[in-house]
Amino acid sequence: MSATPVPSQHSLFLAVAGNIGVGKSTLTRHLATVWGLTLLPEPVKQNPFLRLYYEDPKRWGMQSQLFFLTQRIKLFKEAARLSGPRVVDRTLYEDAEIFARTALSHVEYVVYEQLYEYLLETLPVPDLVVYLRASTRTLTRRIQLRGRSFEKSLSPAYLRKLNERYDTWAQTFQRAALITVDTDDLDLFSLFGEYEQVTVRIAEALQQRGTAWPPSTTIPPHS
Q: Where are the beta strands (DSSP E) in 4-127?
């Protein structure tokens, strides 16, 4: 059962979704800088259960997912309070509909889902969800590049399973407008990352939905 969307009452509200290591944080920081958006960042470093979850998923899955859910709820409520354009790094939708579904047992997820659906009723809906996707090989390489110690134990099989669930989720997602951007051939991590293709695609998608943003979609070339 889906919650009834609550339309955003303020200006632009973007959300960037995607698997671990795909480049969500890098893109949201860039959008915040170039488009003048308030950035609502992903609270990865603050989750006291995340490292424990990677070591023992069955023992710490519910604690980790409830922590993430409460943090996402806070971010979306903060987005509702802001009057200016804003962008959120990862959505509560994917946390609940992909990660929690993967991490929790059936019985645990039934309880979790009831809470999730209830909380959705009070939250704003993004104008657009940008789903960044990449192959498992690309994700593995990017995770190695950023060097977070607690992510070293992530196996390609786990990332592949998440990728499959992300793709299925994106194809059936109806809680907000969504576009998929394949990033395998894009360098989003270098000093002069290839952002222009992504930002133009986002701007075009917004314009198609009646949101004229940003004033200019052209990013000056790097010298």
A: 6-7, 13-18, 38-40, 86-89, 124-125
- Tokens read off for 178: 């969504």
CATH code at 6-208: 3.40.50.300
- Break the chain into its structural domains and give their ranges: 6-208
Is 19 in contact with 133 (CB distance < 8 Å)? yes
Q: Which residue bears the tokens 């809680």?
A: 175
| Strand pairing class (178-182; 124-125) | unpaired
Tell me how far the alpha carbon of residue 195 is from its chain's centroid: 17
3-state secondary structure of 153: coil
pTM for the complete prediction?
A: 0.84
Residue 91 CA: distances (Å) to CA of 75, 129, 145, 171, 194? 9, 8, 24, 16, 23
Q: What is the pLDDT along the chain (223 residues), one digit of tens a residue?
A: 444 343 444 489 999 999 988 989 889 998 999 899 999 987 666 788 888 888 898 999 999 999 989 999 999 999 999 989 999 999 999 999 999 999 999 999 999 999 999 999 999 999 999 999 999 999 988 887 776 666 666 788 989 999 999 999 999 999 999 999 999 988 766 655 678 888 889 999 998 988 877 655 444 343 3
